[in-house]
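Weekly modeling sync, notes
Attendees: AB, CL, MP (scribe)

Item 1: holo prediction request
CL wants a bound-state model with oxa(dethia)-CoA before deciding which constructs to order. AB pointed out that an apo prediction alone won't tell us much about the pocket. Agreed to run with the ligand included and paste results into these notes for async review.

Input as submitted:
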Amino acid sequence: MNAGIIGIGRYVPEKVVTNHDLEKIVDTSDEWIRTRTGIEERRIAGDDVDTSDMAFHASTSAIENAGISPEEIDLILVATVTPDRPFPSVSCMIQERLGAWNAAAMDVSAACAGFMYGMATAKQFIESGSYKHILVVGVEKLSKVTNWDDRNTAVLFGDGAGAVVMGPVSKGKGILAFELGADGTGGKHLYQDEYIIMNGREVFKFAVRQMGESSVRVLEKAGLTQEDVDFLIPHQANIRIMEAARQRLNLPEEKMSKTVHKYGNTSAASIPLSLYEEIEAGKIKDNDVIVMVGFGGGLTWGAVAIRWGK
Ligand code: UT7
């Protein structure tokens, strides 16, 4: 039995904050942000919208897209580092709102690699036959842990949610391979006290190396080569990091998903949000091989190779 994606949804807050808006609150410029990160604008959730609200909306559309009822979900995995509160988990909060009464629920904490950890975990439960339908959500309200006086971090992040329903798919489709990793010695470079604290240069070096290496390793594990890749969906942290991964795989520009310009870095939400956009734009076809790859605080990393289709 192979585990694959059978439904997808997303939610982004309405409020758009442009680089020019940020020029008014920190010592930065639209030009600096564009050239150093590729970001032009980001979405920011209002005080009345917390992480669980975004997760709920993305999940509702993913479940509808999968054509199942909430009672058919066996497990909810929410990847987030910005839960409404330490407990109950965001997964339990949305279990109630969705009416997913038969689902177990837990949150996954692996920062920006969280969605990769969630998908790899879901695969185990589905392929072992333990569970049939698993809701995997990547969601973040980073604006509530961003220090809006710190130009090193304030320009980078945004809020949003992406969700998928995973379930059994036909032979040859679904997740072909995954690879996860962590290096706790790098935890000091990216963490949250009250707000996000980051050593940008150290994280940048790690990310450029890890995104390329993880993508290559996950293809090896799947028994594929770079020529087999139809689409790369990298974590949308910084266009320069994403470009390094694309070049490592020798892919043309049109084969890499790019949403960082309009959403910024949405951490665990960035990969499912990008996947959603590419599907909406008709760029992903049945049988396409997609590599998703992310890195984040921890430090953590993860990659998933998937053959698209049910
Ligand atoms: O999901 C994981 C989360 N984290 C990341 O992905 C971050 C990875 N790192 C990066 O993306 C990049 O390191 C940054 C975008 C954060 C910074 O880019 P950089 O090219 O590494 O810049 P830098 O840190 O080397 O700083 C260059 C200059 C510095 O000025 P001096 O020391 O050369 O005078 C900074 O003070 O740019 C300055 N600077 C800014 N200037 C205008 C730093 N932030 C800003 C800013 N606006 N927002």
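Recorded for review: Residues 4 and 174 are 4 Å apart (CA to CA).
Action items: CL to compare against the apo run; MP to circulate these notes.
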